[in-house]
Design brief:
Radius of gyration: 17 Å
CATH superfamily of the largest domain: Iron/manganese superoxide dismutase, C-terminal domain
Distance between the termini: 33 Å
Number of strands: 3
Low-confidence stretches: none
Structural class: mainly alpha
Shape: globular
CATH architecture of the largest domain: 3-Layer(bab) Sandwich
Helix content: 40-55%
CATH topology of the largest domain: minor pseudopilin epsh fold
Largest sheet: 3 strands, antiparallel
Number of domains: 2
Strand content: 5-15%
Order of helices and strands: HHHHHEEEHHH
Length: 197
């Protein structure tokens, strides 16, 4: 029996729902074309190989550096990125255990956000900035290039910001700081809270 391959995950919102923070045009290209290309490439690369049948997370952890690791990383990174948004544009902050872990790790929420923003503004080239957590619940900010993911460093990915130019250039051109400011208005903290389990 043929093992199932990966599919582009459905969004919990319409392509128009994140506008104007993230426009329909950007989502159409970023989600509909770039993300789909990574899914298609990964399926092609793993079909009939020892990697077929592994979970996406295991592919990211185990695949040696190269095309499989790059495409698996980008599929997982984009999945985590797009699933962490909600249409309501507000500046709500996390609550409960997530806020407790953030406070334990950074002192307070605004300090965590400041560290993430600083890492995102200073990341050179293409990559991702992450809020990641170790097995003891300690959180840290990571700047990782290209398709890298905290799983490859023994950490759990909690929140991510895509800093490849196609994630924001149509809406913001070179105004990365504005993209970051608006990013925080779209974060679905309920989704993020489920990632710490």
């Amino acid at each position: 029996m043929k093992k199932s391959l990966f599919l582009l995950p459905e969004l919990g919102y319409q392509l128009t729902d994140l506008s104007p923070m993230m426009s329909q045009r950007t989502l159409s290209y970023h989600y509909g074309k770039h993300f789909q290309s990574y899914v298609d490439n990964l399926n092609h690369l793993i079909e009939g190989t020892e990697f077929e049948g592994l979970t996406l997370e295991d592919l990211v952890r185990k695949a040696p550096e190269g095309p499989v690791a790059n495409n698996a990383g980008q599929v997982l990174n984009h999945q985590l990125f797009f699933q962490q948004f909600r249409p309501e544009k507000n500046a709500k902050v996390p609550t409960g255990e997530l806020l407790f872990l953030i406070d334990q790790s950074f002192g307070y929420f605004d300090n965590m956000r400041e560290q993430i923003d600083k890492a995102a503004k200073s990341l050179f080239g293409s990559g991702w900035v992450w809020l990641a957590m170790n097995d003891e619940g300690k959180m840290q900010v990571l700047s990782l290039p290209n398709a890298d993911n905290p799983l490859r460093h023994g950490l759990k990915p909690i929140l991510t910001i895509d800093l490849w130019e196609h994630a924001y250039y149509l809406d913001y051109q070179n105004r990365r700081a504005e993209y970051l400011e608006n990013f925080w208005l779209l974060v679905n903290w309920q989704v993020i809270s489920k990632r710490i389990v």
